[in-house]
Design a protein that fits this description.
The protein has two domains: 59 residues, DNA polymerase, domain 1; 276 residues, Aldolase class I (TIM Barrel, Alpha-Beta Barrel). Helices cover 35% and strands 19% of the residues. Helix 1 packs across helix 2 and helix 4 crosses helix 5. Bound molecules: iron/sulfur cluster.
Length: 341
Amino acid sequence: MKNIKNYQLEELKQELSNLGEKPYRAEQIFHWIYTEKVKAFDDMTNLSLELREKLKQNYTICNFQILQKQESSDGTKKYLFDVLDGNAIETVLMQYHHGKTICVSSQIGCKMGCKFCASTGIAFIRNLTAGEIVEEILAVEQDIGEPVSNIVFMGIGEPFDNYDNVMKAIRIINHPKGLNIGARHISVSTSGIVPQIYQFANEGLPCTLSISLHATTDEKRSSMMPVNNLYSISELMQACKDYIAKTNKRISFEYALAKDNNDNLEDAKQLVKLLNGMLCHVNLIPINKIENGKYVKSTNENIIHFRDYLNDHGIVATIRRELGSDIDAACGQLRRKNLKQ
Ligand code: SF4
């Protein structure tokens, strides 16, 4: 059966007209799902009994169940959801000064194999559908009893390896009759899949684009991120420049600092050279320690020196606040642990 959350409003209008119904019914259904947040067709009380029956025969509403939930003392909540086909995915709720943010997964597993990631070693199973990505948000909102203000595509999976479903999910999240979260409050993070960066520049979606950079030479970046063997740093930078030129939007570069790997002054100097003159921001991330991972977190002193060097040389850099450090904070850790049990 088809998941009704997979449809954008115009697509749902077409579905309804295929069932011999008036298109405005789609708007009513959107209202019930995304504003009233109901979980069953029978709760859509302004639809006729006949239409509710038709909907039940043709569609599911796809409501995730919580398999496990961890809560940190800083307000971070990490969910493991049953996606109803025997698989599980992780979604994280983070509490920032500017509001609540949900970090969604875009795939079950990931093909990219970044060496610092807890998802590495978990086989790629499948892409999440747009409706499943949207359901991650609805399920968290239902658990906490309130809407959130920001969405980041930084959970498990490479969003640009599931491009069409992610774009569709963003449009449902952003639509005034959908979850109505402004595009400026939605961030998409990629490990650097160059063709999709060019494609994303033409989507007309003013979301924030984040690039996981983490190193300034091809040798070092390839050792951390196999995707760099496919798309070199210079190809990546060319795509980023094109994106900025087309959208006039600032790119956020993620740089996870690992002790004695990419955190010395030489790395900072190279980074300044690489990003010189670009409309960008650098987000420095104290690397999450993962089981069997070879990277360890930089010292606080090194992290601060690195940030100060960038800021003193014209590159705006901030250090990301560590959240959820008393739970399985790195993406993939909760799922990985669960798979072993
Ligand atoms: S960091 Fe992201 S892209 Fe890289 S392996 Fe982990 S989930 Fe995949």
